[in-house]
Amino acid sequence: MRFYVTGGEGFIGRHLKKKLASRGHSILSDADLIGDGMVTLPKTGEVCVHRNSEDAWAEAFKRYEVDVVVHNAAVVGTDVVALNPAEATLSNVHGSYNIVRAANAADVGVCYMGTTVIYDTPAYQNQQIFEDSVRKPLTYYGVQKLAGEQLVTGMAKRWSVVRPLFAFGDEGDMNSLIPHELSHRQEHLCFAAEQRVCRHLLRPVQDQGLPTRVRLL
Predict the structure, then answer these.
(1) How many Cα atoms are found within 13 Å in the side-chain-facing hemisphere of 155?
(2) Using one digit for the tens of pLDDT, what is the confidence trace for 165-205?
(3) pTM of the entire structure?
(4) I want to staple 73 with a disulfide (CB 3.0 to 4.6 A). Which of 7, 50, 156, 158 is the partner?
(5) What CATH number is given to the structural domain containing 55?
(6) What is the rounded CA–CA span in Å between residue 176 and residue 154?
(7) The CA-based dihedral angle spanning residues 142, 125, 191, 113, taken in that order and rounded to the nearest 10 degrees
(8) Cα–Cα separations (whole angstroms), residue 89 to 39, 50, 74, 97, 148
(9) 3-state secondary structure of 109
């Protein structure tokens, strides 16, 4: 299968592309799209999800025969979103709209990289989160990610959603002190895809779920 990963130069994106390639899948690179004239982000050089039209994305997906787009690109974090909420909204909401519409036009499946911050934070400090748990984001970042997810689940012809709290481990992990501490104590921890912990339980304060080792995504 051929995949395209938006936000492919980020922490999750880089590891995901490596994993997909190791399993024999082909990856559409940003270099190909940039060569076709698609607009990039000035800081990262990644192809921008919202500055390129849905028609441009659809044409690219068709030309390169993409089977699945992993929509990972986002302005991430409560503090980062607050610094430039307008740009964050364009990326996290309008960008998702563009990708979904383009995927539909090109008959491409969408895997959306969501987040557990869409849930009601105080309510789930001491409870497990299930698919039908109350969604009540308390930050603008959470609101944007929930909007992006609803665009995917409500509009995409074929879709799936993954909701890690945050990813950690391996090369390039600069996210926070919590995942670094977990890496040092990894022999005591056993993570599962459902964000369950088999031996020691760690619940970050005012957060939902548990960290996910990046290679498990």
Answers:
(1) 17
(2) 766 665 554 554 444 554 444 444 333 333 333 333 333 33
(3) 0.80
(4) 7
(5) 3.40.50.720
(6) 33
(7) -10
(8) 18, 10, 9, 11, 10
(9) strand
